[in-house]
Amino acid sequence: MTLIETDDRSRAVIPGHPNQKFLVQQNSDGSVLLQPAVVVTEAQREYDTNPELRALLERAAHSPTVRRARRHRQA
Fold first, then answer.
1. CB 3.0–4.6 Å: which of 9, 22, 42, 52 could bond 34 by disulfide?
2. Concatenated DSSP letters for 7-30?
3. Within its chain, how far is the Cα of 14 from the centroid?
4. What digits encode the pLDDT tens for the residues 37-54?
């Protein structure tokens, strides 16, 4: 077992999980459940969950009318 202690600002270190985000759920029995979490923008969530939007953007990206400016290096 690992003992985790909070500091005076309610922060805790979870060994082996540096720089990670967790959703915290405090249960009625006093136990705490940590679930790994990833934060995404609303736009990214919509893209990830909407196949029609992904298809539309894929077609638009490959459209011959889409031009990408390319910078040429000066010698």
1. 22
2. -TTS----TT-TT-EEEEEE-TTS
3. 20
4. 999 999 999 999 999 999
Placement of tokens 């990214």 in the chain: 44
Number of residues in the chain = 75
Residue numbers in the chain where pLDDT is lower than 70: 66-68, 75
Question: How far is residue 3's CA from residue 15's CA, in Å, rounded to a whole number?
Answer: 10
Tracing tokens 């000066």 back to the chain, one arrives at: 74
Give the tokens for residue 15. 């060994």
Q: Which two tokens mark 75?
A: 């010698």
For residue 18 the two structure tokens come to 């540096």
